[in-house]
């Protein structure tokens, strides 16, 4: 079975609709026919402002959401990044083979550091892509499902793997970028030209899976569209309407062309109201499932302990090989 690996950061109290439709939904399908590793990258989460009082709870909560959304700890390996010291160790090593100019071209760093202010952006935010490369290469993953926003980091990961293999001999599998069928990119409801983001979207622009359904409905009602009236899928000229149709189609499993036909002659208000109903019907049972899982933190921690053991076997093996190739003196 091909190995697959992906992660989602504990940077908020809830995942958003983009995280589900662009990532987690595909992970659930992939666990059926892949050797799947899914993790919560808490080391990545500290590259931006974070609160030490909430990080652990958010990490557990992320695990609960993954399970509530359909990941099955019997079918895939779920773990927390900081439980595996190998991630930080390999990240350091990869940093030593990454060009400064190469790292400087990463657009996520440019975006996120511009938001924080250049003086406050950390070196960790700058080297984030090396940690992500370590996450992937440690597990010799064949496929890494990521959204469009992470494609450049994956390209860097492939370059690093090839560079290392060329210089030191075959060590890492070169992972394939993989946009799984049905993955959708979801835009911010208030600014449909940018992606919905846990850490960057304003409250009105983001639809959190665990928020109050009444607020969700309200956010759809006030979603930014355009001053035409036609309900038509045209992401370039009508990004707001296109985004609503994308969400609607993904959650209802109906084709966008079908929706366009259904809403012919109807107004944006009708579309928004029906879509809000569809989203609310989806999130309603989820809140309860997450709560149920959070009521038994010891069980979640047992899942994570098993995950760390399994992940550690694979990661440890890769890291030992890396040490040998680089020529470090083995510990006796
Ligand atoms: P942050 O703002 O903290 O970076 P995020 O919302 O970008 O949070 P991540 O934890 O970085 O979420 O990403 C988890 C997964 O969700 C990744 O595979 C990413 O590509 C995907 N993803 C994030 N935002 C969207 C979106 N708007 N549409 C589709 N997929 C998304
Ligand atoms: Mg992100």
Automatic annotation (TrEMBL):
Any one GO CC term of the record: cytosol
Catalysis: reaction(s): tRNA(Trp) + L-tryptophan + ATP = L-tryptophyl-tRNA(Trp) + AMP + diphosphate + H(+)
Location of this chain's protein in the cell: Cytoplasm
Binding site for L-tryptophan: 135
Entry keyword set: Aminoacyl-tRNA synthetase, ATP-binding, Cytoplasm, Ligase, Nucleotide-binding, Protein biosynthesis
One Gene Ontology MF term: tryptophan-tRNA ligase activity
One matching Pfam family: tRNA-synt_1b
Main location: cytoplasm
EC number: 6.1.1.2
Sequence motif: 'KMSKS' region, positions: 195-199
GO biological process: tryptophanyl-tRNA aminoacylation
Top enzyme class: ligase
Highest taxon listed in the record's lineage: Bacteria
Residues annotated to bind ATP: 9-11, 18-19, 147-149, 186, 195-199
The keyword Chaperone belongs to this UniProt entry's keyword annotation: no
PANTHER family linked: TRYPTOPHAN--TRNA LIGASE, MITOCHONDRIAL (PTHR43766)
Subunit note: Homodimer.
Family in the record: Belongs to the class-I aminoacyl-tRNA synthetase family.
Known function: Catalyzes the attachment of tryptophan to tRNA(Trp).
Name used for this protein in its record: Tryptophan--tRNA ligase
Gene this chain is encoded by: trpS
């Amino acid at each position: 079975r091909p190995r697959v690996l992906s992660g989602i950061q504990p940077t908020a109290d809830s995942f958003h609709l983009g995280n589900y439709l662009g990532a987690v939904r595909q992970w659930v399908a992939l666990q059926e026919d892949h050797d799947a590793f899914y993790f919560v990258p808490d080391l990545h989460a500290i590259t931006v402002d974070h609160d030490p009082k909430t990080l652990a709870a958010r990490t557990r909560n992320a695990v609960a959401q993954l399970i509530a959304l359909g990941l099955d700890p019997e079918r895939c390996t779920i773990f927390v990044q900081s439980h595996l010291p190998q991630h930080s160790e390999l990240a350091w090593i990869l940093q030593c083979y990454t060009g400064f100019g190469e790292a400087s071209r990463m657009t996520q760093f440019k975006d996120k550091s511009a938001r924080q202010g250049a003086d406050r952006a950390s070196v960790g935010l700058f080297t984030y892509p090396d940690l992500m490369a370590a996450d992937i290469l440690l597990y010799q993953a064949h496929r890494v499902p990521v959204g469009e926003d992470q494609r450049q980091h994956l390209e860097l990961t492939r370059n690093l793997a090839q560079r290392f293999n060329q210089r030191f001999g075959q060590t890492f599998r070169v992972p394939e970028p993989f946009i799984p069928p049905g993955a959708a990119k979801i835009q911010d409801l208030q600014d449909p030209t940018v992606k919905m983001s846990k850490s960057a979207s304003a409250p009105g622009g983001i639809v959190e899976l665990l928020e109050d359904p009444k607020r969700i409905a309200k956010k759809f009602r006030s979603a930014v569209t355009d001053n035409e009236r036609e309900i038509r899928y045209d992401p370039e000229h009508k990004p707001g309407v296109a985004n609503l149709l994308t969400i609607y189609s993904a959650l209802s499993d109906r084709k966008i062309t079908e929706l366009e036909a259904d809403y012919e002659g109807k107004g944006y208000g009708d579309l928004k109201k029906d879509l809000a109903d569809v989203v609310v019907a989806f999130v309603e049972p989820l809140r309860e499932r997450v709560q149920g899982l959070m009521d038994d933190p010891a069980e979640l921690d047992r899942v994570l302990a098993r995950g760390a053991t399994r992940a550690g076997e694979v990661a440890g093996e890769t890291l030992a090989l890396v040490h040998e190739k680089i020529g470090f003196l083995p510990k006796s």
